[in-house]
Amino acid sequence: WVIGYDTIYAHQDAEDDALIGIKSTARLFGDRTYQALIVFYGLAVILIGVALTLAGVLWPAWVGLAAFAAHLGWQIARLDVGVPALCLRVFKSNRDAGLLLFAGLLVDAVMRTA
């Protein structure tokens, strides 16, 4: 997940990075950024799902993961790496993605202690 949102952030100034020789994931993935995001976000969702399974969580955690996954999908669909302001907006929306996942985990924890 972190590699994905860091790549989105890096696309804001990928041209400047190229001029001064900085090697960023935005430059590495270039035209394949969307495919890379699908891979990294997909892996994040799968691995979090494995962790939830191993932890034996209740349904709210799964709802949180589903909402998290949907938000990541929305990011990929919404993103235009050629528009720096949009890259920043999508990058910042990862706070919301994290909150969705956290909310599911929090409700799960409350239900377990009730």
Question: What is the secondary structure topology, with strand pairs?
Answer:
Blueprint: H1 2-10, H2 14-20, H3 25-29, H4 33-55, H5 59-78, H6 84-92, H7 94-113
> Which regions contain 5 or more consecutive residues with pLDDT less than 50?
none
Domain tally: 1
The proportion of residues in beta strands is: under 5%
**Sequence of secondary-structure elements:** HHHHHHH
CATH architecture: Up-down Bundle
The CATH topology assignment is Four Helix Bundle (Hemerythrin (Met), subunit A)
The count of strands amounts to 0
Integer average pLDDT: 96
The total count of helices amounts to 7
Span from first to last CA?
32 Å
* CATH class descriptor name: Mainly Alpha
Instruction: Bin the helical content.
Output: over 70%
* Sheet of most strands: none
Give the class from helix and strand content and strand pairing. Answer: mainly alpha
Instruction: Based on Cα principal axes, name the global outline.
Output: elongated
Cα Rg: 16 Å
